[in-house]
Amino acid sequence: MPPEVSAHQPDRCPMDFSFNEEQLMIQDVARRIAQEKIAPTAAHFDQTGEFPSENIRILGENGLMGIEVPSEYGGAGMDPVSYVLAMIEIAEADCAHSTIVSVNNSLFCNGILKFGREDQKQKYVRAIAEGKAVGAFALTEPQSGSDATAMRCRAVKQADGSFVVNGKKSWITSGPVADYIVLFAMTDPDKGAKGITAFMIDTSKPGFHRGKTEPKMGIRASATCEIEFADYVVPAEEVLGKEGEGFKVAMSVLDAGRIGIASQAVGLAKAAYKAALAYVQERKSFGQPIGSFQMIQAKIADMKCRLDAAEILTLRAAWAKQESEKTGGRFSTEAAVAKLTASEAAMFITHAALQIHGGMGYSKEMPLERYFRDAKITEIYEGTSEIQRLVIARNETGLR
Ligand code: CAA
Question: Which residue's CA is minimally distant from atom 22 of ligand 1?
Fold first, then answer.
């Protein structure tokens, strides 16, 4: 991979710490729904593994399924910083809900807005942005996760320009309920990364099948399954972007997706941190609040440092994405730095918060054990921590 042309300008102050009125407004809307509708139902959806359809509909009605989608396609028309602020609020209430929001916003709408034609934007983005349909992103396969170019799902071009798709995709977030999917399939296996094409899939059409639902450790309300294509016909006009450019579509969409996961990790870490902070002030041991003990104080200080670093780096990544929309540069490094830092912070903070709560942290009567289970996925999906390190190091050194 050649060194990326970064959107980040090192000679300029990279951040403005104040939020504008619109950003504060969407943060407020997200916080209200998160606190009133999502937080009170989070434990129920975690226990049952049901998909929270009604909450998703409410989020969609309030513009939170298409935060960066322009209003002409049914979205809120906000900027990447607004997206981060809203995601943090939703994830603080429940990580699983924020997974669904993140996939609809960053992996589905974002890719079609960037690479789709006008008719594709009208057809697919509007329904998702308004919360009337659910989207998904199908890249991973049973044998290809980090090594995405090793995919076996094939789309064979026909004489009339259409494609016939056969193959399996796995770990598809929102797969059990998705109406539309952005699919990546191999159209020319001899060309490797340059032989992959992106397609728009309508799950109501013949040849599309859903497979087993994954019994997951965390984010249990976010439904995940395998999907299978058996002679599914995609008309030529449902190619997203250009034939053979699917890998670039996937990588570029994942850059934006990684900012969503970083925001999710920040929101989740905030929830765990706030719970720990309240507990150390109220819980007494040896005649004093446990927060007066140095071992607990050290934990609180370490949690606070990691939380703040994660949040600031995530906002920087959103800012870099915004700049890239003007300059055309990439923001891969900023997104990878944010995702890596925030997901590792979420693991550290949820672990420490659970430890601080002792036996109560281990009980399902409190949300700490759910936070801990939910945090792990942020180090895995949309590129593992190892892949984020690889992306950062390749971009920094120019070496592979
Ligand atoms: N933007 C645009 N183009 C990019 C890009 C980016 N961020 N990164 C790479 N490319 C381009 C390269 O420039 C190159 O094109 P040229 O040859 O024209 O220069 C082409 O893509 C191939 O790049 P590489 O040679 O670097 O590809 P690679 O095979 O070495 O893979 C990788 C790179 C970083 C390891 C990549 O495969 C990767 O990110 N893997 C992880 C996949 C992943 O994140 N999966 C998550 C699944 S989705 C998910 O989890 C969704 C969910 O449901 C929540």
Answer: 193
